[in-house]
Amino acid sequence: MRAPDFWFASADRIAGRARLLQPLGHLYGRITARRVARPPDVHLDIPVICIGNLNAGGTGKTPAVIAILSLLSDQFQRPHVVTRGYGGSLQGPVRVDPARHTAAEVGDEPLLLAAFAEVWVAKDRGAGGRAAAEAGATAVVLDDGFQNPTLHKDLSIVVVDAVQGFGNGLCLPAGPLREPVATGLLRAHALLSIGNKSAQNAFSVPDKPSGLPHLRATLEPLQTGMDWTGTRVYAFAGIGHPSKFFATLKSLGAEVVHAEPLDDHQRLSPALLSRMDTEATRVKAQLVTTEKDAVRLPAAFRSKVITLPVRLTFDDDGAALRALLTPLF
Questions:
Q1: Considering only CA atoms, which of 163, 167, 160, 177 is closest in space to residue 212?
Q2: From CA 133, how far away is CA 131, in angstroms rounded?
Q3: Who's near 142: CB < 8 A, 6+ residues apart?
Q4: What is residue 241's predicted lDDT score, i.e. its pLDDT?
Q5: Which of 86, 265, 269, 299 has the fewest CB atoms within 10 Å of its CB?
Q6: Cβ neighbours of residue 323 under 8 Å, at least 6 residues apart?
Q7: CB 83 within 8 A of CB 113
Q8: Cα 85 to Cα 114: distance, rounded to the nearest angstrom
């Protein structure tokens, strides 16, 4: 499902449809507040680091999780990821095995993250945390789950897209929020905004609590040796904001002859792949997609598609993030 445009209208110019849905948004916010007020069921003897958001949909959590895993590994920790496994059928807790599991079973993001650390899919986050601890993890990185009270969190980082911000400031379905910004950030230990310099300069949070650390980062293409200059590409992406992926390709010098935006986590059916393959061949273009989409490709189709990986680059080279992590160990 793609987010409606009125979610991201200016907060002081709320669209008519948003106003009609605002009472439902208030109800959604109250339900979330009641849920997060519950005391956690599970306390682990190892740190739990939550990478979450206030918005529904993509904000850059997966690159943020990868960055956290890298920093923890640099500190000689053994982090395990615990995630719900959105889009997957397995309830868990189950340790993700990319050689055995499919995206239909565990979701696409767990398969991607399994390249960087041990990953547990668990609808019950507390059970997933226990499984990780028993398997030898020295830290749990909770992918999403900021509004899930099951597992006690030692550090919670709220991730937001600097371009989209918190949209019109309203809760679902009137706006993109799972809970109001002011109440959500009171539980956070840090805010991480992701975007280029101009987006960061324009981004502001009127309701940000005093003293809440604000980390800033950009998504940069990983240097793989590929020269994109002049390369004709047929790009497709099923992420939160596909336009960003297409813009990245253009910034690298690629000639994007077709850009196919898909819904977040959209199934790559044989019919869809066959159509895109045929069209790419017709316009003499190379199929290109994101890392997250690539893990959903059938094995027989992967050789036809080039993947463009991206990583977070912090404004301060990660110093503020390391300062948040170090006291946990």
A1: 160
A2: 6
A3: 48, 49, 50, 51, 52, 81, 82, 83, 125, 129, 151, 153
A4: 82
A5: 299
A6: none
A7: yes
A8: 12
**Token pair in block for residue 270:** 């044989």
CA distances from 319 to 57, 210, 323 (A): 28, 20, 6
The single-letter DSSP state of residue 329 is -
Question: Which of 138, 76, 38, 86 lies closest to 129, judged by CA?
Answer: 138
CA distances from 297 to 141, 222, 238, 288 (A): 26, 21, 12, 12
Query: Please, which residues have CB within 8 angstroms of residue 278's CB and are 6 or more apart in sequence?
Result: none
Three-state SS at 127: helix
Residue 137's alpha-carbon distances to 45, 240, 245, 291, in angstroms, are 10, 30, 33, 25
Give me the tens of pLDDT residue by residue for the chain, a chain 329 residues long: 567 778 887 655 666 788 889 899 999 999 999 999 999 999 999 999 999 999 987 778 999 999 999 999 999 999 999 999 888 899 989 999 999 999 899 988 999 999 999 999 999 999 999 999 999 999 999 999 999 999 999 999 999 999 989 988 999 999 999 999 999 999 999 999 999 999 999 998 988 898 999 999 999 998 888 899 999 999 999 887 888 899 999 999 999 999 999 988 788 999 999 999 999 999 999 999 999 999 999 988 999 999 999 999 999 999 999 999 999 99
DSSP of 158-187:
EEEETTTTTTTS-BTTTSSBSS-HHHHHHH
Give 272-281's long-range contacts (Cβ < 8 A, gap of 24+).
273/297, 273/298, 273/301, 276/234, 276/236, 277/301, 277/304, 279/234, 280/234
CB of 157 closer than 8 Å to CB of 52: yes
CA dihedral 263→163→62→58, nearest 10 degrees, is: -30
Identify the pLDDT of residue 153.
97
Q: Copy the structure tokens of residue 201.
A: 């300069």
Say how far apart CA 300 and CA 112 lie, in whole Å.
18
**What CA–CA distances, in Å, run from 157 to 145, 174, 211, 328?**
11, 24, 14, 14
Judged by DSSP in three states, 49 sits in: strand
